[in-house]
Design goal:
By secondary structure, this protein is α+β, with helices and mostly antiparallel strands. The protein has one domain (14-172): Chorismate lyase, CATH 3.40.1410. The protein is 16% helix and 35% strand. The protein has helices spanning 21-28, 33-40, 59-65, 114-118; strands at 12-13, 45-55, 73-82, 85-95, 125-126, 130-135, 151-161, 164-172. Strands 1, 2, 3, 4, 5, 6, 7 and 8 form an eight-stranded antiparallel β-sheet that branches. Strand 7 and strand 8 (164-172) form a beta hairpin. The longest helix has 8 residues, at 21-28.
Length: 177
């Protein structure tokens, strides 16, 4: 399934936004999400790569990255899985103009967490969060259990690595009812 499932998001700043208590901490956590998930859910941790190839970002992604429509980008979509249960759907946009020098390693992540590279890099700067929600059933094509009417809350922020922008969006998957 293409990533159009999250294309019509209405992203908003976190200030003054009403978010359910169970998601507030996760949405505002500024450190490594991978590390935080491993701490919150001890046991096995895995990355399932849904897609990592060249593509065209959505208009809202291009605007926040300040890139042109024809800018070539690497798009990576993954599930972060704790103890066999998908907890996060993540979508990362790497403009080709951001992939020079050491940043070129972002093209070779495979099933390695992006956070391992980002939070170990002393040049990392993270922008402000924007928050959104989406019907969790848009993620059903990638999951063994189906959502019905549950809501997935998401966040996104622009990272600057060696001064070059990349966008990371993360949707926290609720437990199916």
């Amino acid at each position: 399934m293409p990533s159009c499932c999250i294309s019509s998001q209405n992203w908003r700043p976190t200030q003054g936004l009403t978010v359910p208590d169970e998601w507030r901490y996760w949405l505002k956590h500024r450190g490594s999400l991978t590390l935080k998930l491993q701490q919150a859910f001890p046991g096995s941790f895995a990355i399932e790569v849904i897609r990592h190839d060249w593509g065209v970002p959505m208009p809202t992604e291009r605007r926040v990255l300040d890139i042109q429509e024809r800018t070539k980008t690497s798009i990576r979509e993954v599930l972060l899985i704790c103890n066999g249960h998908p907890k996060v759907f993540a979508r990362s946009i790497f403009p080709v103009t951001s992939l020079h020098g050491r940043n070129h390693r972002l093209l070779r992540l495979r099933d390695r967490p992006l956070g391992d590279i980002l939070f170990a890099d002393p040049t990392l700067k993270r922008g402000k969060f924007e928050v959104s929600s989406v019907a969790a059933n848009v993620f059903n094509p990638w999951l063994s259990l189906s959502y019905q009417d549950e809501i997935a809350w998401g966040r996104r922020s622009v990272f600057h690595l060696s001064g070059k922008p990349l966008l990371v969006s993360e949707f926290f998957l609720p437990d199916p009812r």
